[in-house]
């Protein structure tokens, strides 16, 4: 399978890339700065199975150009994993909220995956294709808490985008899931987190390989495939 992953240079994105390559898949790894990433070591190890591409999810022109470039090379995709995201205004209460932070979070965490799907969907032509949106339990309305407003709201909105895509793409046999990857030890999750990002990546790539039976319900699951509360 050829898997496009955004935010592939560190954290979960790096581990998803590494895990997919270890299992024999090909990866188009989207990073903001292709020359400044530890992915170059993986590129040496895996050769042509890893393509490093410049991909800033806020740059629609850049994503459109990437889609053309991949199409010209005859690339087809089996999966898109929308992983790139930020978490800012942590624990900030509504009275102190800075709307520049809210706008930036929405631009990256919600409009980012929308831009990526808008331009790269035509390349998603492999059999049993899938789109995995990396969401968060913070986006669960059932477990809403006051704080992390931009992040939580962005993940709830991402979940809506997942379901809209699911309805739109079901007839084409493209599976669309929102996945909570767990609380992971990454720059975002911090050192206290309970889960190794590698373990989460293993579960997520495993779900791509296993492929679920299509379901008309909204599919929000954790990295092991267990249902998450909406
Ligand atoms: P990190 O902060 O460790 O990494 C974030 C990644 O997103 C980096 O690769 C970063 O690239 C990339 N990124 C940020 N902005 C952009 C942009 N504009 N364009 C392209 N890439 C961008 O996060 P994690 O690895 O921890 O998180 C991965 C996913 O998992 C996210 O969707 C997050 O919301 C979700 N998640 C994480 C949890 C955790 O505990 N860590 C818990 C629940 C969900 P760069 O290096 O260029 O900055």
From TrEMBL:
GO terms for molecular function: oxidoreductase activity. Pfam families: adh_short. GO terms for cellular component: cytoplasm. Belongs to the short-chain dehydrogenases/reductases (SDR) family. PANTHER family: C-FACTOR (PTHR43544:SF33), SHORT-CHAIN DEHYDROGENASE/REDUCTASE (PTHR43544). This is NAD(P)-dependent dehydrogenase, short-chain alcohol dehydrogenase family. It comes from Paenibacillus algorifonticola.
């Amino acid at each position: 399978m050829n898997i496009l992953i955004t935010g592939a240079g560190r954290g979960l994105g790096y581990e998803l890339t590494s895990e997919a390559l270890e299992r024999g898949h090909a990866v188009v790894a989207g990073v903001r700065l292709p020359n400044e990433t530890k992915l170059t070591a993986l590129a040496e190890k895996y050769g042509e199975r890893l393509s490093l591409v410049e991909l800033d999810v806020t740059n629609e022109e850049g994503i459109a150009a990437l889609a053309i470039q991949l199409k010209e090379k005859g690339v087809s995709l089996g999966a898109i994993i929308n992983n790139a995201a930020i978490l800012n205004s942590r624990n900030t209460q509504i009275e102190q909220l800075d709307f520049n932070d809210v706008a930036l979070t929405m631009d990256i965490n919600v409009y980012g995956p929308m831009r990526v799907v808008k331009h790269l969907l035509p390349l998603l032509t492999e059999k049993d294709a899938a789109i995995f949106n990396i969401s968060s339990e913070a986006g669960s309305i059932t477990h809403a808490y006051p704080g992390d407003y931009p992040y939580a709201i962005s993940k709830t909105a991402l979940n809506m985008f997942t379901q809209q895509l699911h309805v739109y793409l079901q007839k084409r046999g493209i599976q669309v899931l929102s996945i909570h990857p767990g609380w992971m030890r990454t720059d975002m999750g911090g050192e206290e987190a309970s889960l190794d990002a590698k373990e989460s990546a293993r579960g997520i790539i495993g779900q791509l390989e296993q492929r679920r039976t299509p379901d008309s319900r909204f599919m929000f699951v954790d990295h092991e495939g267990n249902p998450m509360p909406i």
